[in-house]
Give the backbone structure.
Amino acid sequence: MEHIVKTENLVFEYRVAIEGDESAIETKAALNGVDITVSKGEFVAVLGHNGSGKSTLAKHINCLLSPTSGGMWVKGISVTDDEQLWDIRSSVGMVFQNPDNQIIATIVEEDVAFGPENLGVMPAEIRQRVDDALLSVGMEKYAENPPHHLSGGQKQRVAIAGILAMRPDIIVLDEPTAMLDPIGRREVMRVVKKLNSEGITIIFITHYMDEAAQADRIIVMEEGKVVMEGTPAMVFEQIEPLKAIGLDVPQVAEIADGLRRAGVALPQGILSVEHLVEEICRLK
Amino acid sequence: MLKVTIGQYYHADSFIHKLDARMKLLCTIIFITVLFFVGNFLGYALAALYLAIVIKISKVPPRFLFRGLRAIFFIIIFTTFLNIFFTQVGNVVLEIGFIRITDVGLVNAARMGTRLVMLIIGSSILTLTTTPIQLTDAIEFGLKPFKKIGVPAHEIAMMMTIALRFIPTLVEEMDKIMKAQMARGADFDTGGIIKKARSLVPLLVPLFISSFRRADDLALAMEARCYRGDIGRTRMKQMKLKTRDFQALGFLALFIAFVVALEYLANIWGIW
């Protein structure tokens, strides 16, 4: 399969002043030798608790940060190549955590048009893209509404539409559901999965295990390094190592694990309630 | 939650509302300029008639226009009195102690007051019938010629748009902070003006801090969406002048023709 994102020994360092001593500056590594590859059309979830470097990694994919050392390629283009910066940015869309802080215009459709306007797309084409994008996220009824009257989930869908209108190959979502209620989270998840089924590569950063369980592959990060990688079933089997770095496993996986320990003969890799029910019914 | 209306846009479906914002801005500027050239009261009557017709067409209830006047009522009164008391030429009408009121002073005061009132009403019609975003676009267009001498037209317009976008968000946040502090015993309602002002400090500090954070996030989001100023930028909504825009301009031209004719006649007949 074609690699759309690839990193090799990616390092990102930043400097912080040490408290109490004004002249001393300490170098900290947010990313400390990351090697990952993402295939075209894949849905990858990145897990890790606060400060594990997952957001820093996301910002590299869109060239918002540039690596201290090591390499990173998006669609085969090196992110350190300044001349290709806008090519990369126009094919990698980014959705951020706070729905309020990424909407620029006072009307929903104007905001969706912001990206293609920046790319210099012709007016008639922008109109078409905006209508398509709003339809795709199910927000077409709100095209002429002011954004501050929308719910959090709706705002995030508008933000996704704004990215879609730029026709990206990859969408990076940096904890897009962290500030949403359960309904909003479900709405966003549904849209993300739909887009992935339409061929867009998704890199989804989250700390909700249930959301990560829906991905094709999970990458677990800790202290700037990738510590685990594999399908959700493979990753969530490792209950102890995950707990050791402060992460949980989906509730269903934990229940299945408990049952297994108690002597119930359940297979590995149970991540959904439906699957668990099915397996339990199969028991004698 | 607090109710927020941005600007003072009054939504209605009228000829004036449908006009291109650039044309409305241009007409308003011309109208205000003309007001300052009109010297005689017949001219003012004509301007008032013109305004009345425009208001009628715009379908904006007149009370909305007077609301705008109330805000600057004090300035109007002040200017008027200044003109009455400080004009010392002309025939004395009334003299009490050191106060001397002359006929020229009275005429000047009336003239200034009328001008100000009409100026406010004229510009209120613009803001009442144009959405803030349209107005921003019109201002950007109007500033374009000055780009050569370093006026950042696009940046000014973008700043205005973002400000408009974030006013409701910040008001909501202010409300939240206020409630959070009231829940912990803060008192915003009692005390004199100084005490009240001081109680605002703990409100404004968190609000400022969070605005900086928002600005940071927003800048990142804009950059991620390929924003780089107005380099190679297009717009989804193109502004196009239509027949009605030229009709409006024609109507204004007609008004100016009348005013000029009147001014000329007034000079011949020797009335002010």
Notes: Residues 217 and 231 of chain A are 4 Å apart (CA to CA). The longest helix of chain A spans residues 182-197. The mean pLDDT of chain A is 90.
